[in-house]
Design goal:
The protein is an alpha/beta fold and about 350 residues long. A seven-stranded parallel β-sheet has the order 3-2-1-4-5-6-7. A six-stranded parallel β-sheet has the order 10-9-8-11-12-13. α1 packs across α14 and α8 packs across α9. The termini are close together.
Amino acid sequence: MKTIAYYISDYGYGHASRSIAIIRELLKLSLNIRVIVCHSFALSFLRESLDQNKVAYREIKTDIGYLLKKDSILPDKQKIIEEYMQFVSNWDNRISTEENFLKSNEVDLVISDISPIAFEAAKNLDIPSIGLSNFTWYTAYENFIEKEDLKVFEEAYKAMNCFISLAASKEPEWGREQNIERNFYSREVITNEVWRIKKEINPFNDKYIVFVGIGMKMDLQFLEQLPLWDNQDCMFVVSSNININRQNIIQIPPWYLESQNYIAACNFVITKAGWGTASEAVSSKVPLLIIDRESMQEDQNTIAYLKKYNLCKVIDWNEFKCLRLEKGFLDSVMNIKPRIFHNENEVKKILQDILQFI
């Protein structure tokens, strides 16, 4: 029996959903593999999405993510600084806790997307570790936190054996032994389910289906007043946490786990530059309208990459708040023609990268 400790960032559902794609592939193998998921925020989502016979769960705060301003998708710098300093204040104890966990569970491999808490512990115990992400929290916080204070995260990420950098990454080569570049990947899309969703939402095939994804952690009370919803030529799909009572707005049911099928059913997607949603759209060849957040380096890297291959259009937060989907604008998004781009779902290639270390 080989045991993998899989650490998943606590920020939103994007890290969890793309980790599910990898873990599902691992569990398909005939190898005798046990996975221990280390996470807290989306633990119920992970439990319901994965084979319970081969996966164990450890509830632990893995990082702090972004803290956002009220009624905004923009970061709150002061809150991020405060939470970060508190998170690293007992760093030696965190490493010791992870060492005890890895030893007591006889862990053979650590994978992290992209919590920093286990890499040093794994290195101290001579357990191989893999970082898997399009960014790290070290580079994410460079615009918010003093470089000297960020040393804690920098040293943590330097301890990984291998770094698998994903599409749009502009990270250093963190891996001590190996650095690998991979493109977008996502959970598998079920074609028959996509057609069922299309028929259910747009039975007469006379409307645009538009996914509006601004994150499961958003608390945006003004959302209901957005002029966006006024276009009756569109059917809007939103996450289960957005409860707006309009005939042209469809919530993804809270019990429905495979949101990638809804994205694949849409004509285009409006979203912040979260890698998970962008990856699911690109993998299903769905055009993107990205809401720009200039202060967030991860977003800038993702947007630059998407623009390089003409995979999106971009608006800022203020433009989004007053956005009306006029026909000309709709057509301009629908007519995005990607440049030559390799958009095969790379989950199986990443699986082979991982297997080198088992």
